[in-house]
Write a structure and sequence with these properties.
CATH architecture: Orthogonal Bundle
CATH topology: Helix Hairpins
Number of domains: 1
Structural class: mainly alpha
Largest sheet: none
CATH class: Mainly Alpha
Order of helices and strands: HHHH
Helix content: over 70%
Number of strands: 0
Mean pLDDT: 96
Low-confidence stretches: none
Strand content: under 5%
Oligomer: single chain
């Protein structure tokens, strides 16, 4: 039953969050590139895992937003901080994948 709930959550996020679509496309491009480039299995795994982790953070960010909005839709400083913090987590995860790409590409060049 838990898997059903997980898929329901993912479907909801897919339908309501355009940012998940953007990260999904970024992951598709990233996956194609990492399989075309002559890199190690570890490097490939690191890039793929990082991309999936960004999607997971996006799911958590959506959960934070939903809970904050469920409590109250009025503007509150703590609510803004919670939403901004969730968004920052997604951005930091995305930056981590970018750094991983820099390391992988740097290894190919140098």
């Amino acid at each position: 039953m838990r898997a059903v709930w997980s898929w329901q959550g993912l479907r909801h996020i897919w339908r309501t969050e355009g940012s998940l679509h953007q990260w999904m496309w970024a992951n598709i491009v990233s996956a194609i590139l990492i399989f075309v480039l002559p890199v190690s299995a570890g490097e490939r795994g690191m890039i793929l895992m990082g991309g999936v982790m960004v999607l997971a953070f996006e799911c958590l960010n959506t959960a934070i937003e939903r809970v904050v909005d469920d409590v109250s839709e009025e503007r509150r400083a703590l609510a803004k901080q919670a939403k901004d913090s969730g968004s920052a987590a997604v951005a930091v995860a995305g930056a981590a994948v970018g750094l991983a790409w820099i390391c992988v590409l740097g290894g190919l060049v140098f």
